[in-house]
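Per reviewer request, we include the raw input and output of the structure prediction for the construct analysed in the revised manuscript.
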Amino acid sequence: MDTNSNHLIIIAGPTAVGKTEISIRIAKEFNTAIVSCDSRQLYKEMNIGTAKPTVTELSTAPHYFINHLSIHDAYSAGKYEKEAIAQLKIIQKNNPVAILTGGTGLYINAILNGMDSYPDIAPSILEDLNKSLESEGLDHLLKELATSDPQYYQTVDQNNSRRIIRALSVIRQSGKTFTSFRSGKYKARDFTPVHILLHRDRSELYDRINLRVDLMIEKGLEQEARDLYQHKGLKSLQTVGYQEFFEFFDGNISKSRAIEMIKQNSRRYAKRQMTWFRKQDHWKTFHPAAYKNILAYIKSLISPDN
């Protein structure tokens, strides 16, 4: 066990599993703050579709990196790393325990291990790549990646267009392989992580996702998406809950089909999240209903006697 006296309690898990409630209870237990690692809840204009904590929940414990940006702001995992680590240092000046919660694996990894440095990308390169994706499809970009960086091609999620474009943008900008920028070196942190993964049976989780989407519709997700429709090309809005309604507004699908697609794509997203978490063996898994067990496990790790 690391002897570092600061601890970062990470409450992770797929969408709709129940991270918010558990994180708030633990924050109250340790009288500390919560740092969000949800890449969608960052944006202040996106509320209903990102299932942000309610105003009451936000007032129960200090939260950071919720409503942090505008959809028009450029942002990256690297920038998140710098800002979130700085915030954690501030929190832990007064409290050795802080909480990190969310389901964005890239952000969690950035906090725990750090991000590699990449060159700034010319807007024209990104514009060209996005045009290629739209006109020629993802397979065309995959062929380019297979030729220019076969090593990364073998490991990347070949269904993730954002990662493909990110890699190709670095390659085109630098003239080097994307792999050459991936050091694999971990950055030293001044806290010891406590890894908590919340889990529900698939059927239970999927029922919760479907119910959450129904509640979003009742709360006015369609109007929220309509208000953001004029900005549909922004990277921040290329996400579940908005893209499906944009397709409806464009006349490509019916409203009922859009709602069903939101549920379907949310379930798929949850499945991808769990696949990512399962690849790592450091998580201690709990059902959210087992709060007493979660708390006991955390206390057993952060006790000065350990």
